[in-house]
Design a protein that fits this description.
Blueprint: H1 4-10, E1 17-18, H2 25-31, H3 48-53, H4 59-67, H5 71-75, E2 80-85, H6 87-91, H7 97-101, H8 107-115, E3 118-120, E4 133-135, E5 141-147, E6 150-153, E7 156-164, E8 167-172
């Protein structure tokens, strides 16, 4: 994931928090199949899925969400907290990993990994405490660590935060994988 440019393109809002990028209806329609997840009136705050679709640094994440058929879950009311790895984070995985996960025969594994990045509830970075355990949609718990240089979840550093209409997106520098 290409880290910092995503936040600057979203519009810095102070304190590491950013505003959601503006998506055009065409961007959302081109990236998604028809349905609730494709609805965009151009005025409302984007939902989590629309935030990801509107980010050039999250194209691999969007491809994984689509392949796992989890688009509707990220567009639903929520609240939901998503830890969104950048394209660079996916690129750091061993060669062929992403391509393999996108194969239809690996769909269940991909679903589990996508769900490992989503926690029911809305957790602003200020609410994440050192040693805290967050339950994620895959049925696992992930550990929060607060260090001098920032907040980490399951070993991935939170690089920035985007508030969405249905929750929060924390951009992270690593892909979270279940043990």
């Amino acid at each position: 994931m290409l880290i910092v440019p995503f936040f600057w393109s979203c519009g810095q809002n102070g304190g590491g928090e950013t505003t959601a990028p503006e998506n055009t209806s065409n961007e959302v329609e081109q990236a998604l199949t028809p349905g609730q997840e494709g609805v965009n009136n151009g005025e409302s705050t984007p939902n989590i899925l629309q935030v990801a679709v509107g980010s050039a640094d999250h194209t691999t994440l969007v491809a994984a969400v689509k392949a796992a058929e989890q688009t509707t879950a990220l567009a639903n009311n929520g609240p939901l907290t998503v830890f969104a790895p950048t394209n660079a984070a996916f690129d750091a995985l061993p060669a062929g990993t992403v391509e393999s996960l996108l194969e239809p025969e690996n769909k269940m594994k991909l679903i589990s990994i996508v769900q490992f990045h989503a926690a029911p509830g809305s957790y602003d970075v200020s609410q994440l405490k050192d040693g805290q355990s967050l339950f994620v949609a895959s049925g696992h718990n992930i550990k929060v660590e607060v260090k001098d240089d920032g907040t980490y979840v399951h070993g991935a550093k939170i690089l920035g935060t985007v508030k969405a209409s249905n929750g929060i997106v924390h951009v992270v520098d690593k892909v979270l994988l279940p043990n």
